[in-house]
TrEMBL record:
Name this polypeptide is given: VWFA domain-containing protein
Ranges of residues in domain VWFA: 8-196
Pfam family, one: VWA
InterPro entries to which the protein is assigned, alphabetical: VWF_A, vWFA_dom_sf
Top-level lineage group: Bacteria
């Protein structure tokens, strides 16, 4: 049997204190995204999907999944998603992206989709600067890595552009808008897998075909 094309879904989820007010809606939406990935794997049997899920705040990073098969997903809930503290976004990105990059060294038949979801600007990183992350993103975009930035309560476009990320989605902090955001994100994932199947360019226009 031919080896399947690997698709790595790296999700970097803000768990800072300001996410507390939308915690339940985020948990629900995130679990739906996980189910979407499982459904996409069935829809595209030539692809093998893996999940890496990192949540972060000023207390540190939590590696909830790392290169786990989509079939083995555990949902997030109140016990493992507890918003608190500050927003060291650059450190979380640097840690997560470099960890996955190192694990994929020597492999060639894969795509990576990085999803960042945050409700605030960077305010606490000590190990990585915005410029460090920008260089990392620019390097990996040349190598079948796609980056998306979903945010609220800050200038999402400005921050994303400063990191060389051109796929952005802005939402408001209410239940209806968050649900609409997750629905659009799920549609974009299916389109992304279709682009891989058709061997089309995947690094840009991630959200554009989902209206």
């Amino acid at each position: 049997m031919d080896r399947k094309h690997q698709v790595h879904n790296l999700i970097i989820l803000d768990e800072s204190g300001s996410m507390e007010s939308i915690k339940q809606t985020i948990i629900q939406g995130f679990n739906e995204v996980m189910q979407t990935i499982q459904g996409i794997e069935k829809q595209f049997p030539e692809q093998e999907h893996f999940i890496s899920l990192v949540s972060f705040n000023g207390l540190g990073h939590k590696l909830l999944h790392f290169i786990d098969p989509a079939t083995k997903l555990k949902q997030i809930d109140d016990t493992n998603y507890q918003p608190d503290a500050s927003t060291p976004l650059f450190d979380a990105m640097g840690f997560s992206i470099n960890k996955l990059k190192q694990s994929l060294q020597g492999q060639s038949d894969y795509n990576v989709l990085v999803t960042i979801l945050t409700d605030g600007e960077e305010n606490a990183s000590t190990e990585f600067s915005g410029n460090d992350i920008k260089k990392l993103v620019e390097e990996l975009k040349q190598n079948r890595w796609t980056f998306t930035y979903i945010g609220t309560d800050h200038d999402v476009e400005k921050i994303a552009i400063s990191l060389s990320i051109n796929n952005t989605l802005v939402f408001n902090k209410n239940e209806a808008d968050i649900k609409a955001m997750f629905a659009k994100e799920s549609r974009a994932r299916a389109n992304y897998s279709e682009k891989i199947r058709m061997d089309r360019e995947t690094s840009s226009n991630y959200f554009d075909d989902t209206e």
